[in-house]
């Protein structure tokens, strides 16, 4: 693993650079890793694509200003703080939209109004935690994919989607035990990569 590659720099180091130096290069790297996750949370909160993009930009703007104040240490979990910033941004957005509906069409933003009133911090963290697990899994699979042939990765994805090894083997004319070997090889590397990403990004 190339330690000079930004993809493999520990996130603690990245957070420190963004927090202490506030430099553009570090910020671009930070956005690369976290932007899509913020967007996913917003979408899972039933926001439309355009609104989710607006939320993402607003959260990133807040983070740009607030990260220098974030006290990172081994007992802190950056993700929890990110949840809080995202949650508050979504609620501010919902309140703003609900005020608009008083002058416009009340029904057009009713879902956002309900979200702003009803969703709890616990619910947001549940959604975010689930999406984080999916996000890490997909990133890990993408990272390890170059280590295997396209055929093996394709087989693994189909198995993960629910295909049975025996049926898949018959379809591809590959022995079932070979399918099992492929799956084990990918799973071993995938678990290691998931663990690494969790250490670095959590």
From TrEMBL:
Domain HTH luxR-type: 147-191
Pfam families: GerE (PF00196), Sigma70_r2 (PF04542)
GO biological process, one term: DNA-templated transcription initiation
Keywords: DNA-binding, Sigma factor, Transcription, Transcription regulation
GO molecular function: DNA binding; sigma factor activity
Origin superkingdom: Bacteria
Entry keyword Mitochondrion: no
Gene3D superfamilies reported for this sequence: 1.10.1740.10
Domain RNA polymerase sigma-70 region: 34-99
NCBIfam families (alphabetical): sigma70-ECF
Function statement: Sigma factors are initiation factors that promote the attachment of RNA polymerase to specific initiation sites and are then released. Sigma-S contributes to the protection against external stress, thus playing a role in cellular fitness and survival.
Family recorded in the similarity comment: Belongs to the sigma-70 factor family.
Protein name: RNA polymerase sigma factor SigS
Species of provenance: Lentisphaera araneosa HTCC2155
């Amino acid at each position: 693993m190339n330690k000079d590659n930004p993809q493999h720099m520990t996130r603690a180091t990245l957070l420190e650079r963004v927090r202490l130096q506030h430099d553009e290069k570090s910020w671009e790297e930070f956005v690369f890793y976290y932007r899509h996750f913020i967007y996913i949370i917003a979408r899972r909160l039933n926001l439309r694509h355009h609104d989710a993009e607006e939320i993402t930009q607003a959260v990133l703007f807040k983070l740009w200003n607030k990260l220098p104040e974030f006290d990172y240490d081994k007992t802190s979990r950056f993700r929890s703080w990110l949840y809080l910033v995202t949650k508050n941004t979504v609620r501010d957005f919902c309140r703003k939209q609900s005020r608009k509906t008083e002058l416009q069409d009340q029904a057009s933003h009713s879902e956002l109004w309900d979200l702003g009133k009803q969703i709890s911090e616990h619910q947001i963290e549940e959604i975010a935690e689930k999406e984080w697990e999916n996000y890490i899994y997909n990133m890990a699979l993408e990272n390890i994919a170059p280590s295997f042939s396209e055929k093996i990765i394709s087989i693994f994805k189909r198995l993960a989607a629910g295909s049975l090894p025996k049926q898949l083997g018959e379809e591809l004319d590959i022995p079932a035990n070979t399918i099992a070997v492929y799956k084990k090889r990918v799973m071993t590397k995938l678990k290691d990569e998931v663990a690494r990403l969790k250490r670095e990004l959590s």
